[in-house]
Amino acid sequence: MIPVSVIFYVFATLVAGSGLFMVLTKNVLYAAFSLLICLLSLAAIYVCLFADFAAIAQIMIYVGGVLVLILFGLMLSLKSSDAAQTSPSRNPIKSFLLAASVLVGLLFLIFNSNITALPGLGNIQPQFLTQKTSIYHLGIEFITTFALPFELASLLLLAALVGAAYISAGSKIK
Amino acid sequence: MNEIPEVIRTIPLNYYLFLSTALFVIGVTGVLLRRNAIIIFMCIELMLNAVNLLLVSFSAYRSDPNGQVFVFFIMAVAAAEVCVGLAIIVMIYRNLQSTDVHLLNKLKW
C-alpha cells in the first residue's frame, strides 16, 4: 500500500509543474488546460490535509465554475490565428527579477520566523482529523458564528451576477 | 483511530509553506510576464489558490475548522471576481479586437 505522503509529493510536483507550464507556454488553450490539472491536484492535496469540504468546493467552484467561465472567455476573445501563440513579453528579465525577489523575500520570512512556535500548532487533535467528514463542524460555524458573512457572500454573488450580465450585454440594453 | 495520521506525521508544515510559496511566485511571474489579459487572470487565480492551500494546511495542523470557513469565503469572492472580470475582458475585446493589456495605455504616465 502506498503511503499517503508519497501521494502528497506526487500531487505537489503536479501542482508546481502544471503551474509553471501554464505561465511559460505560448498556447493559450494549453495554459487553460494546465490550470485545470493544477486545480484538480490542489483538490487532491486538500484531501491529504483531511479537508474534504475544501476539496469538493475546489472541484465544484474552481473546476466546474471558474475554469469553464475562463474557457468561455477564451473562446469569445480569441482569433483562430493567435490561439497557438500570444504576443511575447516586452521585458522578461525585469519580470523574472521581480518575481525572484518576491520568492527570496518569502523564503527569508519562512526560514527566519519560528512558525512551529505559533500557539495551537503543537496540539494536533487526531479525532478532529480522522472524523468521518469535516462538514459537521463547518456547517455549525457557518450558521452560528459566520452567519452574517455567509449571507453577505450570497449577496455579493448575486450582485456580481447582475453586474456581469449588464456589462457583457453592452449597449443592447436601453 | 486515536493516533495522528501518517501524512500529518511525516510531512512537516513547512513543506506546505514551500509549495504555497512556489505557487504564489509562479502566479506573480505570470502576471508580470504575460500580456494576454485572460492569462493574467488565470495567474491571479493561481495566487488565490496558493493562499487557500496555506489556510487549509494551517487549519489541519491546528485542528481548527475556522481556516476552512475562510477558504470557502475566498472561493465565493474569487467566483464573483472571475464573473465580473471576464465580462470586462469580453467588453475590452469587443472594443479593441484584442485582449493584450499593453493596448490599454491611456492612463499610462
From TrEMBL, chain A:
Q: Which top-level enzyme class is recorded in the Swiss-Prot or TrEMBL entry?
A: translocase
State the species of origin: Adhaeribacter terrigena
What are the TM regions of this chain, as residue ranges?
Answer: 6-24, 29-47, 53-76, 96-115, 135-167
Q: What is this protein called?
A: NADH-quinone oxidoreductase subunit J
- Supply the EC number(s): 7.1.1.-
A Pfam match is Oxidored_q3
For this UniProt record, the keywords arranged alphabetically read as follows:
Cell membrane, Membrane, NAD, Quinone, Transmembrane, Transmembrane helix
> Which family does the UniProt entry place this protein in?
Belongs to the complex I subunit 6 family.
UniProtKB/TrEMBL annotation, chain B:
| Catalysed reaction equations from the record | a quinone + NADH + 5 H(+)(in) = a quinol + NAD(+) + 4 H(+)(out)
Gene Ontology MF terms: oxidoreductase activity
Q: What is its main location?
A: membrane
Taxonomically, which superkingdom?
A: Bacteria
| TM stretches of this protein | 15-33, 38-58, 70-93
Query: Where does this polypeptide localize?
Result: Cell membrane; Membrane
Q: What is its EC number?
A: 7.1.1.-
Gene3D superfamilies under this entry?
1.10.287.3510
Per the UniProt record, one Pfam family is Oxidored_q2
Give the enzyme class. translocase
Name the HAMAP family on file.
NDH1_NuoK
Described purpose of this protein according to its UniProt entry? NDH-1 shuttles electrons from NADH, via FMN and iron-sulfur (Fe-S) centers, to quinones in the respiratory chain. The immediate electron acceptor for the enzyme in this species is believed to be a menaquinone. Couples the redox reaction to proton translocation (for every two electrons transferred, four hydrogen ions are translocated across the cytoplasmic membrane), and thus conserves the redox energy in a proton gradient.
**Similarity section:** Belongs to the complex I subunit 4L family.
Q: How is the subunit organization of this protein annotated in UniProt?
A: NDH-1 is composed of 14 different subunits. Subunits NuoA, H, J, K, L, M, N constitute the membrane sector of the complex.
Name of the molecule in the record: NADH-quinone oxidoreductase subunit K
From what organism does this protein derive?
Answer: Adhaeribacter terrigena
